[in-house]
Design goal:
The complex is a heterodimer of chains A (139) and B (306). By secondary structure, chain A is mainly α. Chain A is elongated. Chain B starts with a helix and ends with a helix. Classes of the chains: A mainly alpha (139), B mainly alpha (306). Chain A: One of its GO terms (molecular function) is iron ion binding.
Chain lengths: 139, 306
């Protein structure tokens, strides 16, 4: 095979790999958006139940359990190179990684505590954890 | 038996108490309350770089240039330690420094002008009781034609209306309190009302959201429009949000609004937050679609953008 054809094939393979990578990031951004939307739905439900506005305690326990499960390992959903114009993640997610991971862990801990004993107080702790991370790391 | 009765009564009383979100303990000191409402600490502290509280240096990127906030600690040389209370009042009311220098409206005197004398005095007392920090101010980075401050007199003539808030007759005390807080110390419009190319507020679009917020952020429409604003929020939803950061859809405040809540709004008495909600839910609904470019749009996505 002629050398230039070989180079052409290599270049094609390379661009296919880049496209695959981009597609993965696209799916990952959609995935974490959906996860955060689910978190939001569960938090909104919990808040209404805790304020006695709607819902019931059985659903509170279910929502809290689900939150604890979804919030395990949040930081891993934001690997290097997964920034995107479709994402609300700020560049600080990667440039201040240690602090971001600390806050993500905090959300995990508070979610677990909320699942263990769902109450207005543990809900507040969890929502504070969400907010403290969204303050610096989300647009 | 009487004991059991009392116990039952106690249990029932607890059971019927209104259950609400857990609020922070409101603050008693008037100066601190004004300080919290005005959000002074947010802009005048360079939190990102671990700067000292109120010593300034925070970067504010705007479409007109980059501003660096000044030191407002009582340090006599780099802060406002040598100012008089009259100097302070003039800065807030007229946007003019003690040396006669015109301030850029990145300092929201355009809103602070609405504050009452009593609140300005209380804020002055509070600020002067804070620790002094020596930290020199950093110059703004502006295009050359904006460095000539006397031009700001023309800007003021066009876009600034001085004067403390005047209560509106025929509105409730709570509504007037809310309007006072929103238009004055709270300076909500500074980010939430869209601006024209000269940086003046667009007429008739109070709180209708902006695509050119500070640091390039999209600032949401918070008028009662059901599609583009927060028309689906009840008054108590809004008051709860301001006190806790929890939105009715379960998402939470982020970015600059989270800072405002954490450093300020959550410390306000619940009656003040309800007053703000009374007022904000009464402004004219606007269908200004303040949302990020490139987003799919639609009601759901748009509401998630803040």
């Amino acid at each position: 095979m002629h050398l230039s054809v070989k180079f052409l094939l290599l270049a094609l393979a390379g661009s296919a790999a880049v496209a695959a990578q981009a597609a993965d990031t696209d799916s990952l951004v959609k995935y974490r958006r959906n996860l955060m939307d689910a978190n939001g739905g569960l938090m909104g439900m919990s808040n209404l139940i805790l304020q006695n506005k709607a819902g019931d305690k059985a659903q509170l326990a279910a929502a809290a359990k689900e939150l604890a499960s979804l919030n395990k390992g949040i930081a891993a959903l934001f690997p290097k190179g997964s920034a995107s114009p479709d994402s609300d993640a700020l560049p600080e997610v990667w440039s201040k990684r240690a602090d971001f991971e600390r806050l993500a862990k905090e959300a995990e801990t508070k979610s677990a505590a909320f699942a263990k004993a769902p109450s207005a107080a543990s809900f507040k702790d969890l929502s504070e954890a969400c907010k403290s991370c969204h303050k610096d790391y989300r647009k | 038996m009487a004991g059991l009765g009392k116990l039952l009564l106690a249990v029932c009383t607890v059971a019927v108490l209104p259950v609400g979100p857990v609020w922070a303990e409101p603050i008693a000191d008037r100066g601190e309350l004004v300080f919290r409402m005005a959000g002074c600490e947010n802009c005048h502290t360079d939190r990102e770089h671990g700067g000292a509280r109120l010593a300034g240096g925070r970067k504010l990127a705007t479409p007109l240039g980059t501003f660096y906030t000044p030191n407002i600690t009582p340090d006599p040389t780099t802060g406002i330690g040598r100012w008089s209370e009259a100097d302070f009042r003039r800065a807030l009311r007229e946007g003019v420094g003690p040396d006669g220098r015109q301030y850029y409206p990145s300092f929201p005197y355009t809103s602070y002008a609405r504050m009452s004398d009593a609140d300005i005095q209380a804020l002055w007392t509070y600020l002067h009781a804070q620790p002094a920090v020596v930290k020199a101010n950093k110059s703004h980075e502006l295009p050359w034609y904006l460095n000539f401050r006397p031009l700001l007199v023309i800007w003021k003539w066009l876009f600034f209306s001085p004067g403390a808030y005047q209560p509106e007759a025929g509105k409730s005390a709570s509504w007037n309190r809310g309007a006072y807080l929103v238009q004055g110390a709270g300076h909500c419009a500074e980010c939430h009302t869209p601006r024209n190319q000269l940086g003046g507020f667009k007429k008739g679009m109070e709180l209708a959201g902006s695509l050119n917020g500070p640091d390039g952020l999209v600032v949401p429409n918070i008028t009662p429009d059901r599609q583009y604003g927060i028309g689906s929020w009840s008054k108590s939803d809004l008051a709860d949000y301001l006190g806790t950061g929890n939105r009715p859809d379960g998402d939470c405040a982020g970015s600059l609004m989270a800072e405002l809540i954490d450093n300020g709004l959550k410390y306000l008495p619940k009656t003040d937050l309800e007053a703000i909600a009374d007022y904000v839910t009464s402004v004219p609904a606007s269908s200004n679609p303040a949302r990020k470019a490139g987003k799919a749009g639609g009601k759901k996505r748009q509401q998630e953008d803040y």
